[in-house]
Amino acid sequence: MVHFLSGTDTVGLLVKISATFLCSTSLITVTAIGVDRLLALQLHLRYHAIVTPFRAILEVIFIWVFSATFTSAKLWSFSSLHDGIASSATIISLLVVNFVVYLKICLVVRRHKLQIQQQQQQQQQENE
């Protein structure tokens, strides 16, 4: 089993290529979903005018092309050190973007929750 995953044969190489491609696609897609949710919260009614189905399709195509390019760059990389640094930098930057995006989402949701509570308190005071 270790020989199968070591990459010394064709099947092992295909497993590594598939894993790299699918993992990078997944991480970028999760980041895109987070950015989309943040845009929906911040843009309100302008969201549908800015985030159109055509732009969403372009984004999906970009994600797949970028992942394929990233994977092929790993294949043709002559230095495993540079490959490791590039992979680590890409993963860390995507994780940082995800953290910042979801932190902003939490702050927006908290602000909206406080605004709703204040409005409810004002309505209760007016009704009394």
TrEMBL record:
**Looking at the keywords, is Hydrolase present?**
no
The way it spans or sits in the membrane comes to: Multi-pass membrane protein
Query: Which keywords has UniProt assigned to this entry?
Result: Cell membrane, G-protein coupled receptor, Membrane, Receptor, Transducer, Transmembrane, Transmembrane helix
Q: Where are the coiled-coil regions?
A: none
- Which GO terms label this protein's molecular function in UniProt? G protein-coupled receptor activity
The listed locations are:
Cell membrane
Q: Which residues cross the membrane?
A: 13-35, 56-73, 85-109
Task: Provide a GO CC annotation, any one.
Answer: plasma membrane
* InterPro entries named in the record: GPCR_Rhodpsn, TAAR
Which protein is depicted?
Answer: Melanocyte-stimulating hormone receptor
Annotated organism of origin: Desmophyllum pertusum
Lineage at the top is: Eukaryota, Metazoa, Cnidaria, Anthozoa, Hexacorallia
